[in-house]
Amino acid sequence: MIKQAKTKHNVHELIRNRWSARSFSDKEITQDELETIFEAAGWTFSAMNYQPWRYIYAHQKDKVYFQKMVDCLSGGNKPWAKDASVIIMALAKKNYDNGTTNISALHDLGAANATLILQATAMNIYGHLMGGYDKEKAIELFDIDADEFEPVVFIALGYLDLPEKLIEPFKTREVTPRTRKDVSEFTKEFTSDNKESFFRE
Ligand SMILES: Cc1cc2nc3c(=O)[nH]c(=O)nc-3n(C[C@H](O)[C@H](O)[C@H](O)COP(=O)(O)O)c2cc1C
Questions:
Q1: Distance in Å, CA 193 to ligand 1 centroid
Q2: How many Å lie between the centroid of ligand 1 and the Cα of residue 122?
Q3: Where are the domains of the chain?
Q4: Which of 56, 151, 158, 179 could form a disulfide with 138 if both were Cys (CB 3.0 to 4.6 A apart)?
Q5: Does pLDDT of 192 surpass 90?
Q6: 19-162 falls under which CATH superfamily?
Q7: 3-33 burial by CB neighbour count: b if 16+ within 10 A, else e?
Q8: Which protein residue's CA is at the shortest distance from atom 21 of ligand 1?
């Protein structure tokens, strides 16, 4: 409960309950559960319904490819992500079929990742996104056509375990309450008699 978002308004509990966990249990995510999570991601909106998200993944039980996933991660992520049940690499397909750049690709991948994580949350599975990784290594180890596909972020998925399982500083982070900007800091209503500037410092 310490991680549950404290909201002023009646925000949906699925959103309040999601947080980026690091302590993962031995319980495996089944292939069926994982496909449910991916199917949810696939129902995300996208520019031209082009669906530029791509996911490469390995279950922990596949020692070879799971280890390759872990090898891509930075030193701050390896110590806890190695205990995830599944590690996913999320990639964006950079261009449309006619070769023009899809300027919405990163936006749409991010949206799909949010949908993926919320579906996981609804299944009591925790996800943790990781931008700390070696992109060149990811491209090499997974033989990615980097002209067409861009690795963007890794995602660790697993069932939750106790914070005590972690080493510091991760143990403390696992029990530190989450904080957010107030809504007034990132929204501004425009009205006819409101002459204030928009996010100009
Ligand atoms: C694109 C992206 C990259 C991130 N990279 C890392 C990372 O490399 N390591 C890590 O521990 N957390 C990483 N995070 C998790 C954020 O730190 C986390 O979402 C943020 O602190 C808010 O916490 P919450 O998700 O529990 O609400 C990343 C999140 C995103 C969206």
A1: 39
A2: 19
A3: 19-162
A4: 151
A5: no
A6: NADH Oxidase (3.40.109.10)
A7: beeeeeeeeeeeebbbbebbbbeeeebeeeb
A8: 20
